[in-house]
Amino acid sequence: METAYLIETVIKIVVILLIFSALAGIGTYFERKVLAFMQRRLGPVNVGPFGLLQVAADGIKLFTKEDIIPTNVVGRIFKIAPVITAATAFMAAAAIPFLPSFTLFGYEVHPIVADINIGILYILGIMGVGLYGPLLGGMASANKFSLLSAARGAAVFISYEVVTGLSILAPIMMVGSLSLIDFNDYQAGGFTTWIVWSQPVAFILFWIAAFAETGRTPFHLIANDHEIIDGFGTEYSGMRWGLFFIGEYANMFFISFVISIIFLGGYGDGSFLGALGLLLKVAFFFFFFLWTRAAWPDVRPDQLMWLCWKVLMPIAVINIVITGIVMM
Amino acid sequence: MHNEHVEEHFNNRNVTELDSNYYMVDIADYPADGWGKFKRALKRSFRGELFVGLWVVLREMIKFDVHTVQYPAEKMPIGPRYRAVHEMKRLWESDTERCIGCGLCEKICISNCIRIDTRVDENSRKEVTEYSINLGRCIFCGYCAEVCPELAITHGGEYENASDQREHFIMYQDMLTPLDKMKAGTQLEFEGFGAITPHEDERVKKTPLAY
């Protein structure tokens, strides 16, 4: 392996880590602002201009708070669980092309850490591993409500993995590759070549499943607001709790990238406008996560299971069959 | 004034079919069979209710009709009859204290939080030497202000009482209108419970002296 390639990869990893850690923080700011405006409130206003430094204040608070390990928890698992959530979220980012390749100081940069030929499989797999964060955290917490929420979260995650995988299978059949760059190039012809037009059902199914994968509001069963505690995160404090948060927000950004690239053309032909378009699409999907949180109530766990196994999965299977027949 | 007989007529608020603002909510029966459940699921899926909710919150965001009162910086106007921490008023004419030390407020106070001590001074006038209200006990019922014959003790609008102990006393000097405020003529009269009504001057009758 060349040294230059190694250095380039390390730099890319550091840049992605820094940008998306910061974005996760700013994401909380946007979430609070958007939710506040939708509920006729002001949101954070006191720290810095328009409350922008609230993110920094929260960061200082999270970093300096005492890291409490309760008495009866399974210490090692309890400590490692938040790291799993955050780490898997960022590991999944390795196969996502964030921008088209561009030339910087005469050196061509591919803004993807590793263009592996099983990109989507890798992303879905790593996001699936992310389940172990909440699950282990809840199970190790020695708190029955944490345990309940972890069990519920695990059930939702595993169920919706099915929908995610099946819904994305039809586009994969059309593109004939698992690399997200190939997905992008397949749709490089412009607006009309987007996969969303040929696979609208898969698009909607994947979008719905994305809410379950990130644990966002209509399927926000993982932290149970109705029990007035923070679900699997109840016993956590300080930066360990913050890692869960960073993982959740990073996941929201990454899944927004994945939806945009798979179904909505990604960065298109790779021009500057295309790159801007990709960022706009991602911004819309991120905004939609916040939007639904303001608008929709949570679904009951049994309704969620019903929706997954009796509605979405059959539709996904039918979609695959029809796609296969059309492709033959 | 209202001597003529007013016929009492209450609204008929019974729920009737005719001419009523009440209506029965149209709730369909729960489907019993699978086909009915399927139809209900289909109907709910495609009726677009989710988008109604999305539109409502987006509309509110665009309208930006924010109702937040940024409390320490902004305060809601409170009513003139609001019963917060007591104030001791001064006389407009002479700037001396209105309190005559009659002790009625101490007597009527139902939570026993007022303590008053008086003496007769060298001019043979009654003087208030000690006056304190235990704000930790006070229930702000307003009886002291109501019973006061001189409108000397009233309620003010100061509701931000923070203290490091529960038994926080407020002393006479803290409640008394400061002299510079009096000189500036900015002492506010309490308009609430026990206070004189706005047009008291026109309604007052001369006391006949020939008893």
Mean pLDDT of chain B: 84
Give the DSSP E fraction of chain B (strand runs of 2 or more residues): 5-15%
User: Under the CATH scheme, which architecture of the domain at 86-196 in chain B would be assigned?
Assistant: 2-Layer Sandwich
State the domain count of chain A. 1
Number of strands of chain A: 2
Largest sheet of chain B: 3 strands, antiparallel
The number of E-state strands of chain B comes to: 5
What is the global morphology of chain A? globular
Instruction: Give the topology string of chain A: H per helix, E per strand.
Output: HHHEEHHHHHHHHH
Describe the structure.
The complex is a heterodimer of chains A (328) and B (211). Helices cover 67% and strands 2% of the residues of chain A. With 328 residues, chain A is an all-alpha fold. Chain A has one domain. Chain A starts with a helix and ends with a helix. Chain B has seven helices and five strands. Chain B is elongated and about 100 Å long. Helices cover 24% and strands 12% of the residues of chain B. Chains A and B meet through helix 1 and helix 11 of A and helix 2 of B.
